[in-house]
Amino acid sequence: MKVVLGRVVGAHGVGGEVRVRVLGDGPENLLVARRVALADPRRGRDDPAAQIHEIEGGRTGRQGEVRLRLAGIADRDAAEALAGRLVVVEAAGLPALPPGEFYCYELIGCRVETTSGRALGRVVEVWDAGGRDLLVVEDEAGTRRLLPTARELMPEVDPGAGRIAVVDLPGLLEPAEAGPRTRGPGSEA
Predict the structure, then answer these.
(1) What homologous superfamily is domain 104-166 in, according to CATH?
(2) How many CB atoms lie within 10 A of CB 127?
(3) Residue pLDDT, tens place only, 179-188
(4) DSSP letters for 42-93
(5) Fewer beta carbons within 10 Å, N or C terminal of the chain?
């Protein structure tokens, strides 16, 4: 499985480094990766024409960004030409997480129900809401709910079984207001 870890937002300096906006779980995964695919966002993470690049170096940059030096990208113009590309890695290459922690992509597709068994739908996206991620849960009728990923609200998370149980607090399970759809971190995952 392929996982989107970021999006190229531009060049840094004149030597060909790219600035990557980190999506989802933080910069660590990009900083330890050895190879990335740069995919056309219209085709998504499975873009068959994605450019594969070895990573020659990486470091943190501005808030929420990393700077990567990629093999074959030697100047600012080449780096700028990559702006907008999705930065994709193979999920198998991601480091294992401690028990009880999960990557955003692992939650996509999980069925969500209350601890009393009421079905709410499936996770279709994970949005970065600043301090806490939000699960976008959609039911069969297309109704969406936004659920914060707080441990106290999600007592059971089992991506292997494809199931998440949430507490039924007043107001928590109300449908999301209709409005413009935005893409969030992990939405390509």
Answers:
(1) PRC-barrel domain (2.30.30.240)
(2) 20
(3) 444 444 444 4
(4) TTGGG-TTPEEEEEEEEEE-STTEEEEEETT--SHHHHHTTTT-EEEEEGGG
(5) N
